[in-house]
Amino acid sequence: PLVGADVWPTAIGIGGSHSGTCDSTVDNPCRGYLASSWYQLTLTSARVVTIDLTITPLPGTQDNLDLYLVPNSNVNFTLASSTNAGASAESISISLTPGTYIIRVEAVCSGANRAAYTLDVN
Length: 122
Known about the structure:
The protein is mostly beta strands. The chain has strands at about 10, 15-25, 35-45, 45-55, 65-70, 80, 90-95, 100-105, 115-120. Strands 1-3-8-5-6 form a five-stranded mixed sheet, with no helix packed on it. A four-stranded antiparallel sheet has the order 2-9-4-7, with no helix packed on it.
């Protein structure tokens, strides 16, 4: 589980949506505080979950964001990911058991990636 100085995730549920910005530019290096956004999804029953990430390019940078789903018990283990190039939309569809999961939106570390996004969970 996330502890200590880790970034605490924002709760998001089925049918939820959230918008934000991720930034891995020189002023905010790879894996810096603003380079990723974390969301916590808790399921009480088994179901197929679809996670969609729509990316809005911002002027002056590359626009590559990636999408990851990890178990809350081991954030270093990836259950599913979507890593399309550039500002292409990202999507994960997966069958999950009851439990707590972390959805991570991350600016790609190569180059200066900064983009706005909308995350939808269904």
